[in-house]
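Reviewers of the previous submission asked for a worked example of the structure-prediction workflow described in the proposal, so we include one complete record here. The input consisted solely of the amino acid sequence. No template or homolog information was supplied to the procedure at any stage.
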Amino acid sequence: MTVVSRILSASSKILLLPSRSIATTSASYIKPSAFAQVAQTSSRFRNVTMLSERKPFTPDFFFRQLFDEKSWTYSYLLGDINSKEAIIIDPVLEQAKRDAKLVQELGFKLTYALNTHMHADHITGTGYLKQLLPGMISVISEASGAKADKYLKDNEIVKFGRFELKAMSTPGHTNGCMTYVVEEQGVAFTGDTLLIRGCGRTDFQEGDSRTLYKSVHEKIFTLPENFRLFPAHDYKGNMETSVAEEKQYNPRLTKDIDAFVEIMANLNLPYPKMIDKAVPANRECGLYDIPKDE
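From that input alone, the workflow returned the following structure tokens.
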């Protein structure tokens, strides 16, 4: 028998093996753990695919993330490129001149300055921005206890140009915490309610762990999983996250509610350094020790 004949003969025998025999033979050589690893790998790839399918910003939507290195605060400038109307979320007093200059350089008109809540770790820049950019309106939740030109209720809409931002009440860190959602762009600004792999503390002001847990699970985690989330702070250099990531990897909020409450009760965090100065100032829309213009 020639070499070719032997190969063809062997091939025909393999093809004639019943499928059950092949499966049995495979199972005898492959450990069960290998199947588990394949399943886990497949699951990871599904997550990667899901995370890559986030919405791109529309060409007429302006987005800029800004940072204050002292308080580790992120501020966000959003705008309509065509109408030139813009808003800013969570501005910081010490950065108000920087932000006003940027708005002017880009040719925007800043219509609203919104705070996600009454902050305890920095003084808001809204009051100072009102002086630097006359006509701008300060905005905060009606439940915050802070002064502002405009108060928001749950699901109320703020418009800038053709875009809409929805105010979603997410209390727990404070009574007045809000998450701001721009649905068309697939983004939400979570303030201190949900941080990247964490959440705001609940041991001062009107903090309540059970309320915060429900705000995250019943509001933020019900947004589409590919929505990009932008918090008010990050202390490890992360800039953004997503609904899917936090639902899978947040070490606190992936627990059940009782375990979460237990975690929050035992954080043993130090007293906030700025709270005694920041909270009184923020009750007055940040109109407190504002630097005098030169």
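DSSP finds nine helices and 14 strands in the chain. We consider this example representative of the routine output the project will generate in years two and three.
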